[in-house]
Predict the 3D structure of the following.
Amino acid sequence: MQKKKKHSKQKGISRRKFLGMAAGTTAALSFGTYIRSGLGAPRLSVLSWANTLHAMDDVLREQAKEYTKAKGIDVSWEFISHQDLPAKVAAAVESGAGPDIINLWTDMPHLHAKALINVGDVCADLAKNLKGWAPVGKDICNVGGTWRAVPWGIIPIAITYRTDWLKEVGYDRFPDTYDEMLVLAKKLKDKGHPVGFALGRALGDANQSHYPMFWAFGGKECEKDGKTVAIKSPETAKAVDYRRKLFQAGETSDILSWDDSSNNRAFLAEAISVTGNAASIYWAAKKNAPHLRPVTNHALWPQGPAGRFGYSSAISLGIFKFCKAQKEAKELVKWLMQPKQYSAWMGEGEGMIAGLLNYYEDDPVWQKDPKLEVIRMIPKYVRMPGYPGPPSRQSSEAMVKYVVVNMFARAVKGMSTEETIKIAEDELKRIYAKT
Amino acid sequence: MRAWIRRFLKPEALTGYALISPALFLMLVLLAYPFCLAVAISLSDRVLGEPGRFIGIWNFIGLLQDPYFRQTVQNSFIYTTSTVSLKLLLGLALGVLLNQEFRGRHVVRGLILLPWIVPTSLSVLTWLWMFDSLFSVFNYLLLGMGVISKKIPWLGDPFWAMVSVIIVNTWRGLPFFAVSILAGLMTIPRELYEAAEIDGAWALPKFWHVSLPLLQPIIAVVVLFSTIWTFADFQIVYILTHGGPINATQIFSTMAYDVALVAGRIGEGAAISLFLFPILLVVIILLLGYLRRE
């Protein structure tokens, strides 16, 4: 025994020797990386939102690794909460340093157009090979004729509803107009199953539920020129009156306190029958409330006198002007948008993301589950705040200040239609007067 | 003049300057520079990513004309005055209580600090759950005890939302008041109370005529700090209500965040956050002057 021990000691590595070797190896390895980063292929850093469906981010992580292996370009992908993105982007724009490729939300390509390179060639190339862009893609990324980002997709917001409770009150499918929805909501609330559309400080849900309603009745915050405030109209008044009626007849009073996750919780707790949301409720039901999955379905936003509309958050990929490897960054974005990569990512989401290249309207993911079928049609109806004008700093300030949402909220709280529209009009005039 | 230079170059004077220079350097880099930059930005129409032009005090004038901002000012004052007075009253009571002799008071004194120690964002998330429209434990208890007949819309009603953020801010800031006041109480010599007792004073007059006057400098400092912190508070309101509903709890910092970082108007955003600076400066000068006289 003793002999053996002695033997191993002689043959083995001494501590000093081990440390020396370790230091040497580390130095050699890091020198290699240094050589590669300094002289060889460039590295690219990407910053995007942390998806509520973590599996989708895992797909992107894998793809980044795959790209690194195939092209020899080191891709590092970082994910942060989407609520932190505006501050991160602001810091990068101001300091001229940060990630090379940035995930922009909704109107951000317009807000930061001057800090982003022209990606018109990438967009044109993708459009040529993949059947063109949905109109909203151009709305969000094309700033004054120049593509400042590549449309990455939308997070489609649909009506999410309980099929069993609708059946109870005699409906086989969700009604197609706002007037019919009002009748349905009343019947549901009488049965103890109110509907609920967030009317609190839910930057996502509240705006996404109320811009479509506002537009469907013919309301608009400004004219097509994006300058003239036009909210004061009989159409807006109709939308406000409708909103008040919907609240009184069929809605839970909790909506005024809701944040972006409240309606998900309320739906999964079986406290509401209908809400407007991304497919995330359906997805979360799989884990948290499996018994609800068979009785949950999706529908398009109803139509109003002026047509059918939707507003969903849109995401895009932009490249900062300070990026040192712009050509490589463009190549990476183009690669991510190719069917092999994009379908794998979108497919993992099961309706969380809808692509804005028309090619993806027929993606296999939509055939996977008949309850997700309507979601593929949503991009067609999506408009951005400020519609019919282009997205702008003004329209985004109006959204951040909840001008439209609060117009409805005041009405629901008892203010007269005329008065609440007047307040909204004054706010908009002040905002649109700014340059 | 020459004498001055000679004094300046004296070895110990030099050592003195050398010793304060790191602190001075940090102050200049981390406080003075960002502050001056903020002032410069607030005087421009700067939007993110563009240099902007100098427009004097037009941002401030524009803000004064904006009802949305006027409501924010009003909310901030309601929020700050009510939380600071609540914290002061409760802090005095708690300080006096903790100053009593009782078993386990060291443990209690330690535990009292918990709300102050736990990261605000985490504790406020817990409060968010307690105020939740569906799952509020307060509503559950109050309904169960028969105190209320229908649930309180904690974060869904303009009035109750303000009440909610005031409750949470008071809860969070109370330990700072209680512990500072406790420290003050502990320095008051026993003899003063004994003298008062000989004169026939009972608890309340003793507190009123002995403790309170001697606590004044501490109260002044604590109130000053708390006022500044509360005016600049962000996390509690941002997490609980995000300024809503219908802007009922919008305060300076949350509005500045929305305008500057989300809507991209950093000139206006800087003006919002600096709006109170002149008022606070006057308050600080008055209070510090008062303290020096004391």
Notes: The first strand of chain A starts at residue 43 and ends at 49. Residues 1-11, 32-39 of chain A have pLDDT under 50 and may be disordered. Chain A touches chain B at residues 86-87, 90, 93-94, 111-112, 114-115, 199-201, 203, 253-259, 262, 265-266, 269, 271, 393, 396-397, 400-402, 406, 409-410, 413, 423, 426-427, 430, 434-435 (CB under 8 Å). The two ends of chain A are 86 Å apart (CA to CA).
